[in-house]
Amino acid sequence: MGFANSAEVSKYIGGIFEAAFEDEEIGPKLVDTGLVIAFDFTDPEAVVVIDMAGKAVREGLEGGPAPTATMSMTADTGNGYWQGKVNLPLAMAKRKIKVDGDMAGLLKLAPLGKKLYPVYIDRLKNDGRDDLLV
User: Fold this and answer.
1) Exposure of 106 by Cβ count < 10 A (0-12 exposed, 13-18 middle, 19+ buried)?
2) Which of 57, 93, 131, 132 is a Cys-bridge partner for 14, taking CB atoms 3.0 to 4.6 Å apart?
3) Is the pTM of this model over 0.90?
């Protein structure tokens, strides 16, 4: 089924970063990267910007620092990624995920992301969103 609208994309995919910033192990590591990542989703259209240094999650490009990197993908690919079902280098090679900007910085984040998969899955389950589980 997938996400109904951009607000849901922001709630779940943006929300995983809000949870990460509160984590005493992962939070400081995210801040230290200094990255500003824009996730540009299609189906549904949504732009979620994560400002690591500012510990901020926002919808849309306005209202904060410009992205140092942009990752473009369908919302379904993003949802699958946060459940550990998408291999990042393979998805990039197949152009399922397109990256512009600081690729080295993004790849440094990948190991941190793995620790967040269970958190993301729990959030979906707690909200009764089994339709989003892959």
Assistant:
1) buried
2) 57
3) yes
Rounded to the nearest 10°, the torsion over CA 120, 125, 129, 132 is 50
Count Cβ neighbours within 10 Å for each residue of 16-41 and write b for 16 or more, e otherwise. Answer: bbeebbeeeebbebbeebebbbbbbb
User: Where are the extended beta strands (E) located within the chain?
Assistant: 36-42, 46-51, 56-59, 69-74, 98-101
- Looking at residue 20, what is its pLDDT? 94
Residue 46 bridge partners (DSSP): 41
- Domains of the chain in sequence order: 6-126 (3.30.1050.10)
Report the pLDDT value the prediction gives residue 107, as an integer from 0 to 100. 82
